[in-house]
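Form 7-S
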Amino acid sequence: MLGRPECRRAAMFTADMVRYCGGVYRVARVSDGMPVKCSGHLRVSADAVALENVICGGEPAGTCSRRCYHLWKEAWLERVEALQPSGQYEMPLDETSIGVGEGSHDIKRLPHDTDTEVSTTQRNRTEISKTLSQLITPGNRLWQEILEQTPHDFYHMPGYVRLSADFEGGKPLGFVAEEGEYRFFVPLVVRPIRIEGASDEGLFDATSPYGYPSPLLQGPPDEQTRAAFLERALNLLLCELRQRDVISLFLRLHPLLPLPRKPFCRHGVLVEHGETVFLDLTRSEEEIWRQTRKNYRSRINRARRSGAITRMDRECADLDRFIEIYWQTMRSVRADDEYFFSRWYFHELKDILGGALHLGTVKIDGRIACAGLFSEVGGIVEAHLLGSRPEFVKAEPVKLMIDFAHRWAKERGNRVFHLGGGRGASHDSIFQFKSGFSRSRSTFLSWRAIICDARYNTLVRRWNLRYAADADSPDGFFPAYRKTSFRALPDRIACSGPTLRNGNRGD
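Output:
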């Protein structure tokens, strides 16, 4: 049928559409005649529908970035039973497994009638049907099993995700997809959407916990196979969230745990924010020292000669003193309220991470001049949060702290010391400071997906009316309806992770 032009009736079935075959989607809009710009020409497809999140990846144009809806002839689709209706869905927390399905895709689109194209679509359906997916809570043993078998950071630990969810006012979940030797895992915080203080029609959105809790991908290294599995896993993730009235998803990717980019681009918007700085601890100490900026070396040596005392404490005995110093630092840079983590938060973080969290200090004349929290997980050491007393600014204790911390991390056999980047991964004063310790760079990315176009657009229109302004596009502040402030953040906050809390600009 699809191979004969007279049966297509001006509708085009492209190679890019094959990847959506076997999926289940809601109809975004129906039209008896929809003009579509494709490869420089206008065409009209009668009796066509557009499906939510089924977006053109640029083929056959190749470099097209318009991200138009694909149009599907109704004859190419099979109707299924209605999905779970939207309403007051409550995400359960007392179950270790929330939902499990084997290829939970029941709408199947019909392939072309040529032999080659039929076999391609049938193979796509078979691969999807072999993929198991489920949402799990931090108490599920599978969560810890995945981390034991996959390179990760402390941002992925179940206790940390639970703590971040408490701070965000959401619920901690993990999504798992498995297929043969491959496994996909991503931690999530699912939050109720509240507009003007009221819950909005039982709708939710999902975001990453604070930091770099990137999706994890485990399996053989073949790039093409990995990318194909990742695309199916992302498709299942969006379907799983859609059925739970989650209308948007924001993920921060880990700069040191790279993933294939193309599948993310096909299912949402992938934003490259900029660079972060890290020290390669597999290099010799001499090489690391040579990469340290010359004036940094002289000031570090001067601090050592002055009698400054450095210490790394696994027990975090001086945690309360660090909290005071951190708050003082936040006040000095006029940080927003959400950066003033409570004393309870810091003590919970210590208890959750246990031996993976260390408190570094620099003492001058018997007083703590600088302190920082450093995580150590799977060979990756993160400079998580730092603070210094303003009266010791001229002594520059932070430089000595970072030099001491990287030597400590290297002696313990770690592979990478990650300093992070500037505000929003920009080349600001924070980035310039950190870049004085190493020439090694990594890229920070975030991924944004609109899961339910109609509901997302409704909330954005309400935001436009309330603030009398145009909301951000998906590559700006996301989700746009959560933006509540237009004030720029200070550029002197010394921390490793992203710096925006109540929305997701990727900072």
